[in-house]
Specification:
The chain is an alpha+beta fold and 442 residues long. Helix content is 67%, strand content 10%. The protein is built from eleven helices and eight strands. Strands 2, 3, 4, 5, 6 and 7 form a six-stranded antiparallel beta sheet that branches. A two-stranded parallel ribbon has the order 1-8. It starts with a strand and ends with a helix.
Length: 442
């Protein structure tokens, strides 16, 4: 089994050359870079708050193996042990009281050029290794971390430890070490001073990490009775990932796994939706084909209906044309009969006029007859005395009787002929009108 190892030293990114150049171009004269170093009392208090977990009740998961439950107090006491002799020696050499140092801890806490203390975080194994392990199994790392403190004193003797606390409340057991790096034999100022940049360089950190790694896995195998190995360290890497960074990384990995799981579920759901959609598409295509077939069938029926209607219209049009021709023929016959009747009527009217013209003469004859009758009565007495007159009178009466008889026959004949013609014309007109009415009703 291979285990990862992390030894991380907090640093101040705001003190880099690049950060200082960026700060010159900002109104506040600072940058937004985070600061993992302990620069002042406020930051030291935050470290105390975080490392000792004074905000929760799970103190059994926090184990301090060096120092007390007050890291600020531990660092102040360490400052007295490390720098007070050098401070007193420095003050003796000063002729001016304003150059003397009353409290070296407070001086460094207010000095932005120096870090007040340093924090190192050591972790062995990752979340995947420790996730299924019991709390008792994790507690065995206490032996490993205690030995790491002794190893660190040996490998980095100029780093003095004020407090060391182990956390068992996170995914992986890890240890927070708060200490002070000391630079000796300084030519200016105190002979012993805080000197992080002098003690922890890129080169020294590589040496410290390599030695601490080997000793950690050795002690781990002793404590757990295993034969584990370390994962190969990345080239060019002068520090391992911090516990906090690893925690964020592990949480991020866990979050990514959850996202992957969610995405897989979404993909599965999408596949199901895809299948459902494909089924719906198949059904829609089938419905489309059915609708198309139905439309084609209706088109055929419609075409048949249209064709039938067209043929019916043609037949009806043909019949109407025939009826029209028949009506034209009837109309022609009617006009012919009308002309014939008109000619007959004109003929009758002509003869009737002739008869009417003779009426005055006929009437005159009647009057003359009446008048002559009176004359006959007057001449009766004449005939008694004139026999010749009587003969003449007799001839005249006979002549008139014949004339009247002839005129009476002519009148009766003409009247009968006129009545016959009128009756025939009236009957023919009535029959023709009734026939036209019957044909129109059909």
């Amino acid at each position: 089994m291979e285990l990862s190892y992390s030894l991380h030293l907090g640093n101040d990114k705001n003190k880099s050359i690049k950060a200082r150049q960026e700060a010159k171009n900002t109104p506040s004269g600072t940058t937004s870079k985070n600061n993992n170093a302990i620069q002042n009392v406020k930051q030291l208090g935050k470290v105390n708050h975080h490392n000792l977990r004074q905000y929760d009740n799970n103190q059994e998961l926090i184990k301090t193996i060096k120092g007390s439950n007050d890291i600020v107090k531990d660092v102040k006491e360490l400052y007295l042990d490390l720098f007070d002799e050098a401070r007193l020696e420095y003050n003796k050499k000063q002729t001016r009281d304003d150059r003397k140092i009353d409290n070296y801890f407070n001086k460094i806490a207010n000095d932005t050029k120096h870090d007040l203390a340093c924090e190192i975080v050591i972790e062995l194994g990752n979340m995947e290794y420790w996730d299924e392990k019991s709390l008792e199994y994790k507690y065995q790392m206490t032996q490993v971390f205690e030995q790491q403190l002794e190893d660190l004193k040996d490998i980095a003797p100029n780093f003095y430890i004020a407090n060391a606390t182990i956390h068992f409340d996170e995914h992986s057991p890890h240890m927070h070490i708060v200490g002070v790096p000391v630079k000796e034999n300084c030519k200016t100022g105190l002979s012993s001073q805080v000197g992080k940049t002098s003690i922890f360089t890129k080169e020294s950190l590589v040496v410290i990490q390599d030695k601490m790694r080997e000793r950690c896995i050795k002690e781990f195998n002793i404590a757990y009775g295993l034969d584990s190995k370390l994962k190969e360290k990345e080239k060019g890497k002068n520090r391992d990932i911090t516990s906090y960074e690893r925690k964020l990384f592990n949480e991020r990995v866990k979050g990514l796994k959850q996202e992957i799981s969610n995405l897989e579920n979404e993909v599965s759901n999408l596949e199901d939706n895809k299948q459902n959609i494909n089924k719906q598409i198949t059904k829609l295509n089938k419905d489309k084909e059915d609708i198309k077939d139905e439309i084609d069938q209706k088109k055929k029926i419609n075409n048949k209906i249209v064709l039938k209607s067209k043929n019916q219209l043609l037949d009806e049009n043909k019949k109407l044309k025939e009826e029209n021709e028949h009506l034209k023929s009837i109309n022609y016959q009617t006009e012919t009969k009308y002309k014939d009747l008109k000619e007959r009527t004109d003929y009758l009217i002509y003869h009737l006029n002739k008869i009417i013209k003779k009426l005055p003469e006929f009437i005159q004859n009647l009057i003359d007859r009446l008048f002559n009758y009176n004359n006959i009565n007057l001449n009766f007495f004449k005939q008694q005395y004139d026999p010749e007159a009587k003969k003449r009178e007799q001839k005249e009466i006979e002549s008139r009787r014949r004339f009247n008889l002839f005129n009476k026959k002519e009148i009766e004949k003409a009247t009968k002929h006129l009545n016959d013609e009128m009756d025939e014309a009236a009957e023919e007109f009535y029959n023709h009108k009734k026939k036209n009415s019957d044909e129109l009703e059909r």
